[in-house]
Design goal:
The chain has helices spanning 2-10, 25-36, 55-64, 70-73, 88-102, 110-121, 125-149, 162-169, 203-206, and strands spanning 47-52, 76-83, 153-157, 176-185. It is an alpha+beta fold. Helix 5 (88-102) runs antiparallel to helix 6 (110-121).
């Protein structure tokens, strides 16, 4: 745990990446697995993870991300996109996966499946989209924690225009909406932010015990 806290103190939102340093295939596979294993509401994972390798696409995204250089300089760029109007078909797919993974018939889970469908489909489209968007933040948290353990820098971004990113990546046609961008790589020695003391609330300010 001490190592975990040490790595959390080490990490920060990197402002300038060293474009010459790349994450190894092995380490990136570990980060992908951390995302895949992330918790989510009901375990449904109502989102897709888009990995942007094409430098031309990154260059297109940069203006939509307020010109932030991390988009083009980072080793890897990931876009988290929530599924819009998530409903019965997504839930059916989840229970099919459960059935195959645990080797149990879908029919044995019908009560829970019906409950889940009734709960989620009762939400308005807007409420469901807010719900699915929130799940991407859980996946981002897992990514950031795993990256810190590997001493890989991550900059989480909400600073972009979703409509423009959706258009560039063709997400509208896929029923997806970009909620978060994460740029990954290694901090540049010229990034002065890495030398700043971390500023957080004190225990007394942050925690309430009842």
């Amino acid at each position: 745990m001490n190592t975990f806290l040490e790595n959390q103190n080490w990490r920060y939102a990197t402002k300038k990446f060293d474009a010459t340093k790349k994450i190894t295939t092995e380490d990136f596979a570990t980060l992908k697995e951390a995302i895949r294993l992330s918790s989510s509401s009901y375990g449904l994972q109502p989102y897709k993870i888009i990995i942007i390798e094409n430098p031309e696409i990154r260059a297109q995204i940069k203006p939509a991300a307020w010109g932030q250089s991390q988009i083009v300089d980072a080793s890897h760029v990931i876009v988290f996109a929530n599924e819009l109007n998530y409903g019965e078909s997504g839930i059916d797919g989840y229970f099919k996966n459960v059935s195959q993974t645990r080797e149990v018939p879908v029919e044995s889970m019908k009560g829970y499946m019906d409950f889940m469908k009734a709960t989620i489909t009762a939400l308005s489209d807007s409420e469901r989209n807010i719900w699915s968007a929130k799940q991407t933040y859980l996946a981002l948290g897992n990514l950031m924690n795993a990256a810190a353990e590997l001493r890989i820098d991550v900059t989480p971004m909400e600073g972009f225009v979703p409509e423009q990113v959706n258009e560039i990546l063709g997400l509208n046609e896929l029923g997806l909406n970009a909620t978060l961008i994460a740029t990954l790589g290694y901090r540049h020695e010229e990034d002065a932010t890495q030398y700043f003391k971390k500023v957080r609330k004190s225990n007394e300010e942050l925690f309430i015990t009842l």
